[in-house]
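Renewal narrative, Specific Aim 1. Our central claim is that a sequence can be written position by position from structural information alone. The example that follows is taken directly from our test logs and has not been curated for this report. It begins with the structure tokens describing the chain, in the order in which they were read.
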């Protein structure tokens, strides 16, 4: 057997399973989004479900909310991660323990993180009850309503708690592998701290920031657990809307749910294409 064929043949079973499950499900969902759903008597191919989705004001409002939450999470995660890794790369007393604490959120599932927020910071949560016992507030209901807010602040904060360490771990690995020699060389040439960061460090870590930020945007754009637990009933993010319509006993809503899911899938593909272009530009 030729060496050039060995690796593709070894990967064939795993790739075949992925293509079968993912591709098959995508194909079935695409068919239902076009109105082909024999289980309820729909067999005519049509685009009316896509038209219905894109002309629905509630859909556009949910699309904007989903995009805003994903964009805010991505930008804030990137900025905070870079700032924290610039501190963590320094050696100081307890730096290893602080780095460990920084990485603690990584293995915690998003569903567990959202559940913890509900138990902690709602008006009936642990913090409100403790403050009431200490006499800092009269009753737990006096605690500020931080969860189930229309702006999605708690949703963004929960995403930040999870995603900042993800970007930070990648950026920290890059900084540790590069070492301080480039900065020291720039310092000997008279570059100040600002110039060293924007002209030396940022170009080195930009590929890592771009790759992780695209992943985070795509994930938060399609995530439904945290918005479902921490968001308001309306407006809801697109994944939550699709989930509710898919779970609705009325199967006539299934094609619109599939249309929304396909829109999310197309956005994810476009993000991957954008990442490839940005990555090539950043490497240059």
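The sequence written for that structure reads:
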């Amino acid at each position: 057997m030729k060496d050039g064929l060995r690796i593709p043949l070894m990967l064939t079973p795993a790739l075949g399973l992925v293509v079968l499950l993912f591709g098959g499900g995508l194909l079935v969902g695409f068919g239902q989004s076009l109105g082909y759903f024999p289980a309820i008597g729909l067999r005519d191919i049509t685009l009316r479900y896509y038209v219905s989705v894109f002309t629905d004001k509630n859909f556009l409002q949910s699309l904007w909310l989903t995009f805003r939450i994903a964009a805010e999470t991505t930008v804030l995660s990137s900025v905070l991660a870079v700032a924290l890794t610039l501190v963590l790369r320094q050696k100081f007393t307890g730096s290893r323990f602080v780095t460990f604490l920084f990485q603690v959120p990584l293995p915690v599932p998003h569903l567990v993180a959202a559940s913890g927020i509900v138990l902690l910071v709602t008006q009936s949560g642990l913090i409100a009850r403790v403050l009431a016992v200490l006499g800092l507030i009269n009753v737990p209901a006096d605690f500020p309503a931080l969860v189930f807010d229309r702006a999605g602040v708690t949703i963004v904060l929960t995403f930040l708690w999870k995603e900042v360490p993800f970007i930070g771990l990648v950026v920290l690995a890059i900084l540790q592998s590069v070492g301080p020699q480039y900065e020291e060389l720039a310092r000997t040439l008279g570059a100040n701290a600002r110039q060293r960061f924007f002209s030396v460090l940022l170009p080195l870590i930009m590929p890592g920031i771009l790759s992780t930020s695209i992943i985070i945007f795509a994930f938060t754009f399609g995530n439904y657990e945290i918005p479902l637990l921490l968001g308001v009933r309306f407006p809801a993010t697109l994944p939550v809307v699709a989930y509710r319509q898919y779970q609705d006993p009325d199967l006539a809503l299934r094609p619109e749910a599939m249309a929304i899911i396909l829109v999310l899938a197309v956005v994810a593909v476009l993000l991957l294409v954008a990442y490839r272009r940005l990555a090539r530009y950043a490497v240059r």
